[in-house]
Design a protein that fits this description.
Number of strands: 20
Structural class: alpha/beta
CATH class of the largest domain: Alpha Beta
Number of domains: 2
Shape: elongated
Number of helices: 15
Distance between the termini: 20 Å
Radius of gyration: 24 Å
Largest sheet: 9 strands, mixed
CATH superfamily of the largest domain: Zn peptidases
Length: 461
Amino acid sequence: MSDKNPLIQPDRGQKAVAIHLVDKDGLDAFLKERTAAQRAALEAHKFSADAGEHAIVPDGDGWIVVASVARTGELSSWCLAKLADALPAGTYRCHGAEPGRAMFGWITGQYSFDRYRSDPSEEGPRVLLTAEAGKIDAITAEAEAVELVRDLVNTPAEDMGPGQLEAEAESLAKAYRAEIHVTRTDMLEREFPMVHAVGRAAGRSHAPRMIELEWGDPRHPRIAIVGKGVCFDSGGLDIKPSSGMLLMKKDMGGAAHALALARLIMDAKLPVRLHLLVPAVENAVSANSFRPGDVLRSRAGISVEIGNTDAEGRLILGDALARAGEKEPELIIDFATLTGAARVALGPDLPALFAREDATAQALLDGGLASDDPCWRLPLHEGYREMLKSDVADINNAGTGGFAGACTAALFLDRFVPKGVDWAHLDTFAWRPSAKPGRPKGGDALGLRASWNMLRQRYGK
């Protein structure tokens, strides 16, 4: 039994307010068991057991909660999330079903980002009791990983630059006794030339770097997790309009996902040899900014013509993926807030998934459905490679014609992953433009739980 999460506790018979879970099919039977006063209260609330409804009704000298779910026999992550935000502070116990994976939304439904508020909320927590004590630690770990992504993405760029991403990786390395190596300055220019070129204009205060962490038994299967760490994206000399920069503190969302997934892997002691890579930069404007028309060399030896300095994320990922491939992993997963085209195609909720292997793609899709974190697969269509042709270099970083932007970005990355390596790429938004139960507006993890579920199925003991 675990007591480490203050919001989810093992049920030891503590005093608690009852939450009665009911669905439409069971409403009539439930009402027959209620007192006349309770039925009258529910009628006054116009309670009809539509999913997401709840009502507080009298119960002797106290009160109970009646909450509707789609099906009491199959709770989702979000079934209790609205309650976790709406109910008064206190301790609660479910009746009619064990909370199961709905414990996740109970935790994330109480998340708030108060770092910059002078008067943060002092409302007490809502604690949920469960007889399924064996599930608490795993669900807590997932919820805390998601909240880590939210915290990192919500933090403004002045306080979440390349140095702060390095500090986050150092904290993980210390906590889990991992090895960390950071490449900067002249060594960065020699070893990771595209990372250096993208980040050099930010100056010394937000200087670019490649962050690498390794953990686990070298005899175990090697996997690499890569995250795009563009801490702020002005667009470079192909500068964005001011409206396009407003959310660009979230352009390190891929790095946040990678750090959170690495923490899940290490915390669970998954039997893998983990290699985490975060190329961390700010794409700024200065006299030494890289320019449209420049040709950059890369770690992989591929020359890249710059068609658009605002397509910088794929450049730094190219060097990181090449480095990951040198270690001969059996699987590489990268996360990146890479293209607006993916959002046009799929909207904010669905990460675009690209994968070389059908089985890996299906495992990620299945993992997403099982954890209420769905993804949607898009093609690595060979016919679109010609859109990345360059007249002067091996490849252009920006596709021509304006079509299939997410696909051409993925095909660009594919050039830097060695042949034969199982590779998956998630083009994620890392942001909620509007709130949903358990998912406040702001930074969020999209594709993280899908990936973690897949890795547990693939490598779990």
